[in-house]
Fold these 3 entries.
Entry 1:
Amino acid sequence: MTSTFVFVQIHDEPAVNLLSSLREIFKGRQSKSPIHITVRGPHKHVPSQNRLGRLWDQLDGEGLLIHGIGTFDFPEKSIVYIKSNSKAIRKIWWKRDYPIIRFGFNPHISLFEGTKENALEVAEFLKSQKIELYCRDLSLTLYQTFSDDLFDSPSNTLIHRSSRIKGDVLVEPYRWKDGAVERARLLARALNL
């Protein structure tokens, strides 16, 4: 069985490098998925090119603000994430398993998954790093997972990518405290992650 999701993938190199490093440090391994925000899915069927084109029309040329740390707490684990904000993403948001009327609108990038105690430590650390990223190099991608053993890794297909940028570019669109990655490694070691 195939599960299909629509991602807004981030390509801004400083943001991707920072978030990938933090996610890898706190997960203890490299992730199979790119730095992204899941905006739709899971779909039972692959969305048509027409539908994907209309979704991209809402996003093309828009920027995405990434800042603020939050947690999801489940009985078996907690997840730490960095929040994102975009009016364009709100226009295309649809998650079958997390309807907005019940769960709200909470676009995010997950950075840690583990015990509640460790999640609290990681969340406090990330808050102290003052991460603020304004990303403008975005794409719409299809992400598919397969339950067939022949496909042990998911596929990620780029559909559309930013070609134009609306408005002025910020002087410092990517901000965080110097040494954040090194301090994250120290915290991960202290928590035995």
Entry 2:
Amino acid sequence: MTTKFRIEKVSIHSTEGPVDYALPSDLTVLAGPTGVGKTTLLELIKWGLGGDGQLAPVVTEYVQDLTLEVSIGDDRFLLSRSVDPQKRNNVRIVNLVTGERLPDHQIKQGESSLNNLLMASLGLPSDMRAAAQTGRSTKAGARITFADIFTYMYVPQAEINRDIARSQESYLEPKRKAVFELLFALADPELFEKRSQANTLKGAVDEAEDHYQKILQFLRDSNTQSREEAQQALDRALNAQQEARQQRAHLRDRIDPVTDRETQTLRDLLNEAERTLADARKAEVNLSRQKDELSSERRRVQADLARLNRMRDAGERLAQIEFTTCPRCMQALKKREVPKGHCRLCLLPDEAASTDELDHYETIQLKEQLEEMEKQLAFVDQQALNARQLILDRQKLVQHLEAAIDVRTAERVSPRLQAYSDISENLAASRTAQEHFENVLQQWDRVSDLAQAEEELRKRYARLVREIDQRELELKSRRVYIVREISKEFNRVVADLQIPGVEEASIHESNYLPLLNGKPFRQFSRGGGIVTATQVAYWTALIAVALRERDVPYPTFLLIDSPRLALNEEQDLTSGLYRRLVTLAEANAGKVQIIIADHELPAAYRKNYAQIVFSYNEPTVKSVKHPGKGQVKPLASVSN
């Protein structure tokens, strides 16, 4: 089941107007001289599919968006990507089957990335990794993306007569081979996953072995006792510790009875004195807190009393003032009539009752409160003084009782206490020795754990390698068959093209690259467009075999940029090249799509394919005037 992949339409939205190109034919040739934008169009297709296509100056200066109408398997999408550096990582998508506008997808890897969408349409997982198969690698491998699949679909001008699928870049070799195996069903996602796990496990095994050896060497260099010696020393320390505990318990039993009735009485008195001392200190704290509270309340009452005095004084002063002029508007007040018993200033009735009695009552209340508080403060001060005196008395009593007890017990207890101290020191030394040897044993346990972990990792790695070998053995016959079929097809195409100097052509059984006369194609002559012709033979052979096998996910789509640029005057080779492409397209009508950019076309085949002709008057971005021949730098030499 080869995967149908077609570019149905390309729309370029420039500031000068839109430009559309429909590509309905199985074989389309973009014709025109150098500098009219053929490579620009191919690179824009790569750009629209999420790649890092080289953008020509006319694109960066005038083009805003690019839209591709793409068919992949059963899916049809409208992909729109901006050229603006601020927006280029965002792709707008419409599902042309359902007419639904999908959420925007990102160019960068992520859950909603364009790569995931395209890989899913191809029927491929997006989380596969291409692990190196050298047996020495410890890396899981780089992720296989649509960009890697696209290297089997696009032959750029910069590589047409130099390299095949970037095979000269050694760091990409694992991915190139993995993509070949994937597209021809020589491996599956499960096998890729196992290879990645095997490499990761290999790294874990190496790390575990290194860690084990470093700790083992450290123990040897530090003259650490062996496990057996440490265990024997630990047993001796435990025995010494047990013996010291027994001696200490025996001595404690002998020390405890050393007391008499008077000493016990002194101890009881000491306990009572200490208790009353604690109570006195607590009472002192409480009295101090009460004094602070009473002092605060006294200040509040004094403030209220002062306020009343100020108010009464102010009222008396104001009552003596006879206003003759309004203090607000300065009008005379003597000439106006004032009813009897009313205020001359505000004309309100005078208050019938005086507030003097009320103020006098409140003042008396506040003074009585102050007197009561003074008495309470005096009482609290006296209580605090009594408490401090009691504390001093109890402290002297405690000191006297402690001294008396020390005198009575010194002669009886001190010698035994010295023996008790010696035994305690022996016990502490035994515990220290125990901790030391337990630490040594823990280090050896760590070494043992590391050895066991390393062994477990080695078993898992060996088991995984066996599973990989078994799966590869199951696929070996298919690999031999596929490589043989591609070799036969490739050799037949090379013979039809009559590539100069090539007597036999085949495909390498492990790196899947062309062999010319038994040698790698890179070691063969590069003159006369040899690599270009080999490219066409190689890629068309892959498509032809994929179409015959049907059960492979190979996308039957091919972009080729400027094959005749390297062929120069090799007319026979050029004719053979186009004959091969025409034959492949006609034999598989509706199943393949081949798009070629070229500057001149063989006259004999111009009616066998669709043709879009560009010129300096009608360039690719024809909405923008072409600057003229010789004014454009070829895109192949422009760095993006």
Entry 3:
Amino acid sequence: MARLSIFAVCLISAFVFNFAQCKESIDSNIEVQFVQSLADFLAKNPGVKLEPLTTEVKLDGPSTRTQIVHRLGNRISGDRILATDSASQQWQKPHDIRLNLNYPQSGYGSVITYLEVIVEQSSSLSNAYVVSGGIGQRQISVVVESKDTLYFKHRAAIYGY
């Protein structure tokens, strides 16, 4: 009976430890601004090589809501959610916005295997790029640009081990 109790305590402790690690959030901010062109950004930052994320646009029937899924990497056996983030904003007139996502918030985190950013907006004009770090590394910085949108909602998740 004592062994069963010890096993139960260990199992619950492991679950709580993993759940606590899943609650880390991504350092993010949404900038409402005129998004500078990619060519201008690269000219001002000659050492930066942008890696585009794969993008899938899903239209929600006759509504004006567009869902765009940006992905990088692949889920692998044994990986888990390292960090999540979500936010939303809306405006009366169309805006160009830039979402900056950084994992971890400081220092170095776990090894990253997969990144997914789901965006809902009123236009289908959205791109996402890795600015630094990436898959197989312990940090990543991603920029998501969306243009001419009346609202912007995102959900981001980073997986790894």
